[in-house]
Amino acid sequence: MFVFIFTTIVVGFACAGFIMLGFRLTGRKAPKYLIPLTAALGMFGYMIWDDYSWFDRVSSRLPPQVEITQTYVTTAPYKPWTLLVAPVNRFSAIDGDKTITNPANAAQKQITTIYLQKSHLTLATTRLIDCDTRLASFITPDTALDGNGFPTQIDDAKPLESNDPAMVYACE
User: Which positions, given as ranges, span the membrane (predicted)?
Assistant: First the structure.
């Protein structure tokens, strides 16, 4: 967040500086309203560009084994441009390198889901997906694991829809 605010301010100063330099080189005096207006337009332009390009910039840097499963958009009244076309500001992805099949039960898979949101910390969760029963359970540090690293007992399993991205990824 600090980098975003700092960059926005720098862009505003840079835009104002270009206008001031242009008028100074031509020997004319800039109208009083033009410098702050140019700085404000530059800052708003940067904020809009950052909102709409965030998803493409972040997703292009993901390794090839990470597959994006869902994207989410949000509008905000303090960002009126999002009311016209809402930008993608968060998404979830599954890390294919961390998907493990239970050797004792091939229908059980451990998947790692990564949650990314603009201006927030990245989160990762590990879940056990049972393809036969269509149940899913989060694996926490308190979960008792067997010798293969799979839970010995699933207490908090929740049913998944057949079109749930985690279910589709793990069971296809």
Answer: 6-26, 33-49
The set of residues, in sequence order, having a beta carbon less than 8 Å from that of 128 and lying 6+ positions away, is 108, 109, 110, 136, 137, 138, 139, 150, 151, 154, 157
Q: Which residues contact 40 (CB under 8 A, 6 or more apart)?
A: 12
Which residues span the domain enclosing 37? Answer: 2-59
Radius of gyration of the chain (CA): 24
Whether the Cβ atoms of residue 160 and residue 167 lie closer than 8 Å to each other:
yes
Residue 51's pLDDT is: 94
In this structure, are 51 and 80 located in the same domain?
no
Question: What end-to-end distance do the CA atoms of the chain give, in Å?
Answer: 39
Look up residue 15 and give its two tokens.
Answer: 């835009």
The confidence score (pLDDT) of residue 73 equals 95
Q: Residue 134: which of 99, 167, 156, 112 has the closest Cα?
A: 167
Look at the pTM and tell me if it is higher than 0.85.
Answer: no
Point out the residues of the chain with pLDDT beneath 50. none
Strand partners, 110: 100, 128
